[in-house]
Specification:
With about 350 residues, the chain is an alpha+beta fold. The chain contains six helices and 21 strands. Helix 1 runs parallel beside helix 5. The protein is globular, with a radius of gyration of 21 Å. The two termini are about 15 Å apart.
Length: about 350
């Protein structure tokens, strides 16, 4: 089975705050690392132009997080020695009751020779490894505040949920990441764009129409977007008193009918995956998955239908493609067109959410 793989969906039981709990940007500290280039040129890189982690940092500032309470380390500055020293120094500054938001974008790795499947972030100096457990250990040791939101846009980022689950309880943890602990992640900025939409109060996130966007709604939005656009499942978790009802933003404007829906549209006698960006009487404005923005256009709403992805039944005996080979497996769950599979002869820690194209009847 391929060395970069997936498993586990952790959702801890959260003892919930009052329903009107609200995030306070003025009492928030943001530590962000974005590594798009590496000393080992064999690693995939991304262009600095158009990097969405920088857009996210601007969104934090616009929401009211003081600039001197934000650290953003990029590329060549993101050596293991620098990020660990900077994090420890940064964690000493917040006061009791403050909130920490941690973010990482880049590559993530996972040790398949370790029964515990230790996961890490890849720093600029790639021969080093910045273990996700070390991040949580540093927070537990040095952070005096109460609430922590861990976010990451990389392969195996869901291991943060596992690490948060090991902690004692002094700190309340929320986790929102692009992938599960055993899953590789997309090279696109889709997940980070989801976080930006949360910060900006995009009305499409307001699932119940009450004018507020909660952590729970943000988690559901990320899950839907990542499954639809990237064919992978995002991971969310909450531990301690971190509330899924925590209000992260108010709507930036009224929620328009159908805007944000993930659908299929008929064109050239074929159904294509689309997202509705706007609506008016009898028409919707859509963007087409996999096509440039220049093709976005208004179409008759009769051309649109709900997206209902096929899925294998729970218990189905199948074969799953991994690393160019097919392995015997069983489907143990299905969600949003993805199938969670258990590989015969492998531990549960390697269970994986996979797209239907990687599954075939045995």
């Amino acid at each position: 089975m391929r060395k970069l793989s997936l498993v586990c969906c952790l959702l801890f039981v959260a003892r919930v705050f009052a329903a009107d709990a609200v995030w306070h940007p003025q009492k928030t500290w943001v530590f962000a690392v974005g590594v798009l280039a590496f000393d080992d040129k064999s690693y995939a890189t991304w262009p600095d132009k158009g990097r969405q982690d920088a857009v996210m940092i601007d969104a934090f500032k616009k929401r009211g997080v003081p600039a001197d309470q934000i650290v953003f380390i990029k590329n060549t500055d993101a050596t293991k020695a620098n990020v660990t020293a900077s994090l420890n120094a940064f964690l000493a500054k917040p006061a009791e009751g403050d909130t920490l938001i941690f973010y990482y974008a880049g590559h993530g790795g996972r040790d398949m020779n370790d029964p515990k499947r230790t996961a890490w972030f890849v720093p600029y100096d790639t021969k080093s490894s910045w273990k996700m457990g070390d991040v949580c250990a540093a927070i537990e040791k040095n952070f005096k505040g109460s609430n922590v939101l861990l976010t990451a846009d990389c392969c195996h980022s869901g291991a943060l949920a596992i690490e948060a689950g090991k902690r004692g309880g002094r700190i309340n943890y929320g986790v929102l990441t692009s992938a599960f602990a055993t899953t590789i992640s997309t090279g696109n900025w889709t997940f980070t764009q989801c976080l930006i939409n949360v910060l900006n109060g995009n009305p499409a996130l307001d699932a119940n129409g009450d004018g507020k966007i909660t952590f729970g709604e943000a988690a559901q939005y990320c899950e839907n977007e990542m499954a639809f656009f990237e064919g992978q499942l995002s991971c969310s978790a909450a531990k301690g008193h971190f509330s899924t009802d925590l209000v992260l933003a108010k709507n930036a404007g009224p929620k328009q009918p159908r805007v944000g829906e993930l659908c299929e549209a008929m064109d050239t006698q074929k159904w294509w995956k689309v997202k509705i960006l706007d609506s008016r009487k009898g028409e919707v404005f859509v963007t087409w998955l996999g096509w440039e923005k220049k093709w976005d256009r208004w179409i008759d709403e009769k051309q649109v239908r709900p997206y209902t992805p096929p899925a294998f039944k729970t218990g189905a005996v199948v074969e799953v493609e991994s690393g160019g080979k097919w392995y015997a497996a069983k489907v143990i769950d299905s969600k949003l067109g993805l199938n969670r599979v258990h590989y015969d002869g492998y531990p549960d820690a390697d269970d994986e959410w996979v797209v239907g194209e990687r599954v075939r009847v045995k």
